[in-house]
Specification:
Helices cover 48% and strands 0% of the residues. The chain is mainly α and 88 residues long. The chain has a domain of 48 residues.
Length: 88
């Protein structure tokens, strides 16, 4: 069973948008291993790990209002305030 290179690139691109990408990937990996290992209380820890993984997947990075997103170009209508503040 081989993975398509597009799947790995998609996962990396999604994780780059998260606040804690490594923590999300670690939790998702532990969740996958936990699904395969039998345990005493069935489905209890799988549900908890699944919910934590979904919680981490929804924590996106905070966007700054002052800085445009990478790759965005300014239009000629954008107003840039002077560096020293308003002049009186």
């Amino acid at each position: 069973m081989t993975q398509a290179p597009g799947l790995v690139a998609t996962i990396k691109q999604f994780a780059a948008q998260l606040r804690f990408p490594y923590l999300f990937l670690l939790t998702a990996a532990i969740f996958c291993v936990d699904l395969l290992v039998p345990d005493v209380v069935p489905l209890a820890d799988e549900i908890v790990l699944g919910l934590v993984t979904l919680l981490l997947a929804n924590l996106k990075k905070k966007l700054s209002l002052d800085v445009p997103p990478p790759g965005a170009e300014r239009s000629s209508g954008d107003v840039v305030p002077p560096a020293g503040g308003p002049q009186r």
